[in-house]
Design goal:
Number of helices: 6
Strand content: 15-25%
Radius of gyration: 19 Å
Oligomer: single chain
Shape: globular
Largest sheet: 7 strands, mixed
Strand order of the largest sheet: 4-5-3-2-1-6-7
Distance between the termini: 16 Å
Helix content: 25-40%
Order of helices and strands: EEEHHEHEHHEEH
Length: about 240
Amino acid sequence: TKPSKIQSQQNQITNQQNQQPDEITTHKNKNNNDRYQRVEYCTLFAFSTENWSRPPSEISTLFQIIQRMATRYRNHDAVKNGKIRIQVLGDLDDDRIPEGTRRELRRLESESEENCRRRTIMEKEENGDGSGHHHHRALTICLAINYGGRADILRAAKNLAISVAKGELPIEALDDEAELSRRMRTSKMPDPDLIVRTGGERRLSNFLLWDAAYAELYFSDVLWPDFDEGELEEALVWYG
């Protein structure tokens, strides 16, 4: 069955891959702790490739915020306990990104992955059957930093063309969507089923352009800082 994902101006959520989209947990659940138990992916659009056109002082402030956020995430109990995995989408090798921010993001990414791995091992040992299936499924938070949908498509197309030119793939591979998809920065994520755009805008703003081809679109007039749990539930209900 296909996964279900919700995407906002800075937020994307995906259901577990083995659940149907209409099984998204909403406010109708009796146990609030289980409200989003089937949500598997959440992507935050933190810094787009277009943001480089902003004033230098604003760019500097944004990366300071991102760096503080990365440190806060790394020390969060949910990350330390292996309940949340952090993945970064975008080009962190860009020299314009402050070294301190790059270091904190990569540390957050690697430590969260290791924590999730340790938690999985512990649960398999506790189960005794080696499966660990019924106990834990980590939420993956993807941070889109120095990311742009068009840039991602161009990068994937270029890499695919190079592989064909080198003889690693036949010329027919240029017509294969799967070959392009596996070269996208989002290749390890399921495609979104639902896009949520906040702030009264009615556009995608260069976000997940390839991946959102078949997503449903939900628009909210609520500004992103005010888009709280209640607003998210409304989006989930609308989708479900």
